[in-house]
Amino acid sequence: MAEKVMVKGTEAIGEAAIRAGCRLYFGYPITPQSELTEYMSRRMPQVDGVFLQAESEVAAVNMLYGAASTGHRVMTSTSSPGYSLMQEGVSYIAGAELPVVFVNVVRGGPGLGDIQPAQSDYFQATKGGGHGDYRLVVYGPESLQEAVELTEKAFDVADEYRNPVLILADGLLGQMMEPVEFPEYRDLNTLPDHSSWAMQGAKGREPHKITSFDINEHVLEQMNLRYQEKYKKIIEKEQMWEEYKTEDADIIIVAYGTMGRIAKTIVNMAREKGVKAGLLRPITLWPFPYEIISKLADQAKLFFTVEMSMGQMVEDVKLAVNGKKPVEFYGRTGGVVPTPNEVLAKLMELI
Amino acid sequence: MSYKIKLKGPEALSGKEFTYCPGCHHGIVHRLIAEVIDELGIREKTLMVAPVGCSVFAYEFFDVDGTVAPHGRAPAVATGMKRAMPENVVFTYQGDGDLAAIGTAEIIHAANRGEKITTIFINNAIYGMTGGQMAPTTLLGMKTTTSPYGRSAENEGYPLHMAEILSNLPGVAFLARTKVNKPQDVLKTKKLIKKAFLAQIEGKGFGMVEVLSTCPTNWGVPPVEANKWLEENLVPEFPLGVYVDKVGDEK
Known about the structure:
The complex is a heterodimer of chains A (351) and B (251).
Chain A: E1 5-8, H1 9-19, E2 24-27, H2 34-46, E3 50-53, H3 57-68, E4 74-78, H4 80-95, E5 101-106, H5 122-126, E6 137-139, H6 144-161, E7 165-170, H7 171-175, E8 177-180, E9 209-210, H8 217-237, E10 241-244, E11 251-254, H9 257-272, E12 277-282, E13 284-286, H10 290-299, E14 302-307, H11 313-321, E15 327-331, H12 340-350
Parallel strand pairs in A: 2-3, 2-4, 4-5, 5-7, 6-7, 11-12, 11-14, 14-15
Antiparallel strand pairs in A: 1-8, 6-13, 10-12
Helix pairs in contact in A: 1-2, 1-6, 3-4, 9-12, 10-11
Chain B: H1 26-40, E1 46-50, H2 58-61, E2 65-68, H3 74-84, E3 89-95, H4 96-102, H5 104-112, E4 118-123, H6 153-156, H7 162-166, E5 172-179, H8 183-201, E6 206-212, H9 216-219, H10 223-237, E7 241-245
Parallel strand pairs in B: 1-2, 1-3, 3-4, 4-6, 5-6
Antiparallel strand pairs in B: 5-7
């Protein structure tokens, strides 16, 4: 590991992607992630990679589709309205089972919204967004160091399952600066070999056909069942979460990403007031850590979900708690980041 | 002197039977592309992007690596492929709904970047697979299921001329409009398709051949009459010819 360097969030993710072996980036500028696109435009030529500014997010996601179908590591980044435009391609990429990494630096919505940090793309990120029965692995980092580590992991997981992976950050993570330790550069020769399925020219073999398509409903059903088998494996193996002071907690705060980070402060403040609070921070938003929350529901008296949205993840928390204990919610939206004091005040009202 | 009789079709075709309607020109154009791929000796490094529409199955008819792009996005998909695999030959096959309606942005920008890909554009002035609706290339006065009183300039605008539009872009290295309704046209079209591939192979830029084609089923006429209708109606609206040629004559 190298020494720590001070970097901006968007650039940290870009650098991590390059170190993970990403050599093709297609994207389109949108606030608050434009610096990632700019960073890739500087860095890609330095590592013999490809940077191309697409004419739209629609084109960018389809350039990814094409590049990923050749077996290379590829990435794009965008922010909420741009990710909405990409949904057509996300659905096709999931159906074609291509390993692609997406970064959505979420801003306030709906519609044009604003350019401040938000978590209101949770539904779109974890429940689909595009058409059809498909799933993406979704990571919600809380810090730049974690974002760097999850970016590297995202490429490996995408490769392993031939499935798109989404890093769901928010405007705060994208724009903040923090010291970060970057991993070593991945030796491109050690990356997984995709020649068994990738489109690289049918030399000495049967042609490879990559599609998300079959006109026969029974064949398409079989394809979907195959995807579901894969998703089942991902649910079993890829769940990640962090527990903070949950051992003796009566109140479990559930929060992710930037909000999860703020929630640690809230847990400490609550404990100073004699309230036994703890934090469950999902790191994978899909697969969602239902089981651990269900277990905590046997112990805790109350769940308190805090989000920078009007309440999206709270539905998953309720599913996990399954009526065993009350699930309360507090959220700010439109790009407003809740302060620890206001969340604590709400929490004290609940007990 | 001994002669070898070749009974097989081009190697670049998979041999799978075409599923197109009688009198449709897709089959002819597929065959021409395959012959060109064989003659250029590029089958083992060709990557194809099939469209959405009647020819969505094209990826199965060619014996090359292939995928299906979302509607209209083939030039973007092909761009990603070509940038990842610059040594390979990448071509898209697109209809008028695909290329001239939903995918107008993608084709214009790929052409303008001088993307080293080849596009075969089938223009039959109507939507085939969805059942005969109006296309951007539908002629004025032409009746379709969504222009039942005939296309009017006032309501739907004018037929879109993609070859003329794209020919203004400096990234385009070869661009021609042709037809295959007569035997001599078929031979000529093959030469044009070859040049559109050479534009890519020689690294000169974007190459496209627009082929005026029939859709007897949705035009509601028998195949022979469709060929005649094409000659009398499509050709006057969409002038044939070579619009851009930076490839030069074959040596």
